[in-house]
Every structure is written in C-alpha cells, then in structure tokens.
Amino acid sequence: MRLTREKTIRLSHIITDVLVSTEEVEFVEDRDTIRQKTLQIIQELLKEEEAVDAEIRKKITSQKKEVLEGSEEWDLLYRKYYAEEMRRMGIAHVPNS
Q: Do residues 53 and 23 make contact, with C-beta atoms less than 8 angstroms apart?
C-alpha cells in the first residue's frame, strides 16, 4: 500500500496519541522520540510490503499461461500468493489442518 509521507506522519501521530492515552503503556522516552520511532517502523513495513508486492507480481507474470492484471484469475493468484507470503513471514495465522 502506498502512503504519502504526510499520511505516514499523521498515522504516527495517531498511534502515539493512542499509546499515550493507554494506561498500560508507560513511556521511558519523550513523546516525539516515540512518534519518530513509530514513523520509522511504519516506513520499514511499507517498504517490506512493496517488496512483497513486487515479488508476487513477478511470480504471477512468470506463469506459463499469461494472466492479465485486473482479471479475476490474477486477483485470485495475487491473494493466494500474498497470503502464502504473510504466513511465510509469520504475520498471518496458519490454521491447524
């Protein structure tokens, strides 16, 4: 997902505000340091997601049969490969079979 710098900054402010308002969270750094670290984490996650997206697109285009982007088949393959990648990264829950 592509977000502008302004949107990622806004998101970091929202996350920091939520953390500040949560009684279970105690800051050992100042609020701005926490917000900057939050922004850094968001940007790193977005870069990772872009890399995953590029890898999935490469995988789809390397199919023997040409699959047109925007088609139902392309969307199904994208979701399938995305879910596989999330499981591989340990991000998605893997149901017990």
A: no
Beta carbons of 43 and 73 less than 8 angstroms apart: no
Per the structure, the count of domains in the chain is 1
Residue 10 tokens, joined:
């806004």
- The residue assigned the tokens 């900054």 is 9
Please enumerate in sequence order all residues whose Cβ is within 8 A of that of 65, keeping only pairs 6 or more positions apart, or say none: none
Residue that has been written with the tokens 């939520």 in this structure: 18
* For the chain, counts of helices (H) and of strands (E): 3, 0
Give pLDDT tens digits for 14-27. Answer: 999 999 899 898 88
Does any domain span residue 72? Answer: yes
Half-sphere exposure of 42 (CA within 13 A, CB side): 22
Nearest-angstrom CA–CA distance, 60 and 30: 45
Would the pTM of this model clear 0.85, i.e. be above it? no
- Residue 42 placed within a domain: yes
